[in-house]
Amino acid sequence: MRHFFRSVLAILSLTVLTFVGGTVFYGAKTVQDLLAGNEELKQAITQLTHEDQIGFAKVVKQETRDGRLYTTIKFVETARDDMLNRVLEKEYEIEGDVVHFDALIVTFSDQAVMDGKSRSIYLWRRVYGETMSPSEGFDIATPGTHPERYADVLRNLKQSEQDLFWESIWDLANNPDALRDYGVKAIYGNAVYKRLRPGLIYVFKIGANGQVYPETVLDM
Questions:
Q1: Burial (CB count <10 Å: 0-12, 13-18, 19+), residue 76
Q2: 198 vs 82: CA distance, rounded Å
Q3: Strand pairing of 68-78 and 86-95?
Q4: How many domains does the chain contain in total?
Q5: Parallel, antiparallel, or unpaired: how do β-strands 98-108 and 86-95 relate?
Q6: Are 124 and 103 in contact (CB under 8 A)?
Q7: What is the pTM of this model?
Q8: Among 67, 139, 151, 155, which is most exposed with the fewest C-beta within 10 angstroms?
Q9: Helix (H, G, I), strand (E, B) or coil at 89
Q10: 110 by DSSP, 3-state: which?
């Protein structure tokens, strides 16, 4: 009888370990697993459309204090399907009048999509002035978070898979080639700068080569 109970306990222990082990294995799922085996993710990336305007900035005020010029700007990110819909809006005060805007551009090759046409997403990183280093810049979007601009893209994925995807995408800022074998790469450090003046709006657009550039228009 004692031998019987030991056998039962051994079987139960093995069952528990198998379950826990499976849970741990699933919990340790990597973004490589997600990119290689998740058809819903590939479908979501395939549905991305070409983007043109991705936001704009304008001067709220410029003033001189203690002999130094300061520029307060409003930065706006617009929705992918509606340039009038603001999905992010922030204000920053920058010393000087030359302001840098830094974006992370992530491209998906035909390995990561279903129709053989590459796609891209554009994530605003930070804004900084001439007297600041890029690392001292102010965050536009918070690294690791789900960008509101792409809120609808991964809606069919589990929350854990969405979290894993966006964390990994933001990590490409530090290692642009980390996912190259899976058809994903980052164009890092695509910063543009302009000398800003009141009364103008600086509209940020994406060229066919994936580079960000500003167009200047009058503020109506």
A1: middle
A2: 25
A3: antiparallel
A4: 2
A5: unpaired
A6: yes
A7: 0.78
A8: 67
A9: strand
A10: coil
**170 in a structural domain:** yes
pLDDT, one tens digit for every residue, the chain (220 residues)? 555 445 444 444 434 333 334 333 334 478 888 888 788 888 888 888 777 888 899 999 999 999 999 999 999 998 888 888 899 999 999 999 999 999 888 888 866 666 656 788 889 999 999 999 988 999 999 888 999 989 888 888 999 999 999 999 999 988 888 998 888 888 765 688 999 999 999 999 887 666 788 899 998 7
For residue 11 the two structure tokens come to 């079987």
In-domain check, residue 74 = yes
Q: Cα–Cα distances in Å, from 134 out to 65, 89, 155, 214?
A: 23, 21, 33, 19
Contacts of 87 (CB under 8 A, 6+ apart): 77, 78, 79, 148, 149, 151
Q: Identify whether 123 is part of a domain.
A: yes
3-state secondary structure of 17: helix
- Confirm whether 159 is domain-assigned: yes
Please answer whether residues 165 and 46 qualify as being in contact, where contact means their C-beta atoms are separated by less than 8 angstroms: no
Range of the domain at 134: 38-218
- Residue 31: other Cβ atoms inside 10 A: 21
Question: Distance between CA atoms of 70 and 63, rounded to whole angstroms?
Answer: 5
User: Is the separation of the CB atoms in 44 and 158 below 8 Å?
Assistant: no
